[in-house]
Fold:
Amino acid sequence: MSKLRSIGLLASTAAVASGAVGAAIASTSPAEAQSEPVSDTAATPEYRLDTLIMPWGEMRIDTIQLNAPGESAVKSWRTEAEHEAHIDSANRYRTLTEADYRLVAAELGVETAAIKAVVRIEAGAALEGFWAPGVPVVNFDRSMYNRMKPTTAKKAPASEKVPDGIKSSYGRNEWSQLIAARKVNQDKANMGTFWGMFQIGGFNWKVCGCKDVDEFVERMSYSEFEQLELFATFIRNTGMLPYLREKNWAAFARKYNGASYAKRGYHTKMANAYARFKKEEEALQQQESKDSI
Structure:
């Protein structure tokens, strides 16, 4: 696939006033797409401009060439990933699909089995990102909260309460602490909390590719797929991606889990999980090959 351009913009408030996600697909000329031809000898190439507005107001655009040699009906993995996040509303709070893993693995340029291994070990067997629809798993860290320097003095309203639907007493307690802290300073509270299935600290909002901690929280609250996307960006922007591509589990675990990774066996667990997922994929490919004969 010849990917010519990939940019991120902020959509207007009016475009997302309804809170709905919209996707528009259109074919356009190279000039309209503001993209350079692949080569001087190429015939008039056909381009597709894919635009999708996310719930938090971000517009993402991918321009791709459709008629590259040997390719037909090429799709941008990025646009496909965003569309997947949109259409997955039926199970977005409780399930990571096979398509989710493939899309993020393609984004990072790693084996699907490798990203599955990391997700399995870091998120745990339950792979739990939400305690209730739209209510992500959180762990409020008082010491981290005290260290944070807020960017605004905004406070949560006095009427804010623990979200409905949390069955776990532990979950209700964590959300109770978070909301109480938000009523003092919302930024500090959100940054001093660890979010989602990967327990990424809110203070990492920038390395997760968000414009502010509010967007980070909104994306963490949107779907497990978005939590996976934030995790992928976090890996890339903190220098862990080369280790994952090389399947250097010790180096990856040292960076992600800290100096005690070896005592807890994180590197061994990831290696074993990778071997298991790789074996499953190979078995599936062999079966699909037999079925196609």
Notes: Residues 1-50, 61-74 have pLDDT under 50 and may be disordered. Strands lie at 3-10, 22-28, 47-53, 58-65, 130-132, 135-136, 138-140, 193-195, 200-201. The longest strand covers residues 3-10. DSSP finds 13 helices and nine strands in the chain.
